[in-house]
Design goal:
single chain, 275 residues, alpha/beta, D-Maltodextrin-Binding Protein, domain 2, 2 domains, six-stranded mixed sheet, five-stranded mixed sheet, 12 helices, 39% helix, disordered N terminus
């Protein structure tokens, strides 16, 4: 009788809160950006929600893979790290305006006085260069540059020093301050410096620039209490307000006002991150 009573109580217990996650970044209030989407999903599913901010994209990917979160707004690097997980389903992507999409690129920029003017020179000179990235798992401030460096035969261990600047602006500032010789960052701060302070930009040289990069999709971790197809349908329905608020949390999604269905094609040219 006691066992049956306990079983009935467990069956009647409400599901745990829906954990809706992303990673933190100093420039944006991502908890605020995520909350409207979390609230809408909670209302549609009849569940309480909890917004979760992880420290880095790598930490977000680990939480997704471990099933510690239910729904997540990823960046490209975090998504590539988990896309092969059988329980992970990409459900929607923010429909980014073409002008914004065309600007989202990564660059490698060096100090002119570091004596490097082309990617082909890096294998010979890397051992004396101090290299700054943005943060672990940053798409435009670490991942795509790592692939470009590997293509010319350079690994992070080949530099004299590797530091994590924390933001794209800080990586650029490290170059200008002389505390780094080479930096990986998104193109936007570099573009702004050239427009606003051409004299300062003359002291730096762009070695490499990526093609436009796709934003990470919203992913769902499949579980008995987490119906991913239904979550996708909710976001593709009347979710314009949630999409617009979510888009404010990333420079690469600026101006998006709706979600669109996930399409794997833009992601096929990328491979999973290599440690």
């Amino acid at each position: 009788m006691i066992a049956l009573l306990l079983a009935a109580q467990l069956a009647a217990a409400p599901p745990l809160p829906l954990k809706v996650a992303t990673y933190a970044y100093p420039k944006y209030d991502r908890a605020a950006a995520l909350k409207p989407m979390a609230d809408q999903l909670g209302a549609a599913l009849g569940r309480e929600t909890q917004v979760v901010l992880l420290e880095t994209p790598d930490a977000l990917a680990q939480a997704i893979a471990a099933g510690e979160v239910d729904v997540a707004m990823t960046n490209l690097a975090a998504y590539l790290a988990v896309q092969a997980e059988p329980k992970v389903q990409a459900v929607v992507v923010l429909d980014v305006p073409p002008a914004t999409a065309g600007r989202y690129r990564g660059v490698l920029v060096a100090r002119r006085d570091a004596g490097v003017t082309a990617m082909a020179e890096l294998p010979e000179k890397a051992a004396r260069l101090r290299y700054a990235e943005v943060l672990p798992g940053s798409t435009s401030g670490a991942l795509v540059q790592a692939a470009a460096l590997r293509a010319v035969g350079v690994t992070p261990g080949g530099f004299a020093q590797v530091t994590q600047a924390g933001t794209h602006e800080a990586a650029l500032a490290a170059l200008r301050a002389g505390t780094a010789d080479l930096a990986a960052l998104a193109e936007e701060p570099w573009r702004e410096l050239k427009a606003e302070n051409p004299k300062a930009a003359e002291g730096l040289v762009e070695l490499w620039r990526s093609d436009p990069l796709p934003p990470g999709p919203v992913v769902c971790v499949r579980a008995p209490t987490t119906p991913c197809d239904e979550i996708g349908a909710v976001l593709l329905g009347d979710a314009a307000a949630a999409a617009a608020d979510l888009a404010k949390g990333w420079s690469e999604t600026e101006g998006a006002v709706r979600f669109k269905g996930y399409d794997a094609a833009p992601y096929r040219r990328f491979s999973a991150p290599i440690p």
